[in-house]
């Protein structure tokens, strides 16, 4: 968009382009709420984070491409992946609702009315049906719910995913051969972590390496938001990262532990 508008020069007014997505640093997320200068227009490039949780003043037009990136879990491979999938009718209505929240607006949908009526699902697939259930199963077991296959889920997950979660917890010694919670499993359930990370923390006590393991678990739990490298300040960001590696790493690790615990 910047390249196209640069080619138009003074033929159009100033265009302010603001991205918004979950891993974007907070100070950059706040830019989308700043008032638009007189004589300029603002374009917000958003993921589906903007469907329900944001209301931006002055948004009059929404362009809906009809797709989103959705996290899905394959029980057979044990892998999670972000896949580009068509949105549901409910999501389409939410996206249209972003236009004209504070003034009259319009939504442009980049798909046909036939696609909307006949090819889209009514609602988005619930997350419990497309995610790794190991953490949820461990929590349910710790609450005393034994028979998960007959449990009255609001949206029942695939049985294959439940089997996979039980197999994983058994392999981690969180469950015994009867599917009951063990002492190790009860300790694991107290950590707000993925079961594999919580087992790692619990096992570190035996090997006298808890400090190192907590540091590793903290780093693995914060995804991509530790190091931010803006395009216009890449040199400064790289210098800061070098200072992190060569400076007093103990202070940084201590801070991560405080945040983690």
From TrEMBL:
Assigned keywords, A-Z: ATP-binding, Helicase, Hydrolase, mRNA processing, mRNA splicing, Nucleotide-binding, Nucleotidyltransferase, Transferase
A Pfam entry, by short name: Helicase_C
Gene3D superfamilies membership: 1.20.120.1080, P-loop containing nucleotide triphosphate hydrolases
Recorded catalytic activity of this chain's protein: ATP + H2O = ADP + phosphate + H(+)
Enzyme class: hydrolase
Gene Ontology BP, a term: RNA splicing
Gene Ontology, cellular component aspect: catalytic step 2 spliceosome
Domain Helicase C-terminal per the UniProt entry, residue ranges: 1-144
MF term (GO), any: ATP binding
InterPro entries (alphabetical): HA2_WH, Helicase-assoc_dom, Helicase_C-like, P-loop_NTPase
EC number(s) stated in the UniProt entry for this protein: 3.6.4.13
Protein name stated in the entry: RNA helicase
Organism, scientific name: Cajanus cajan (Pigeon pea)
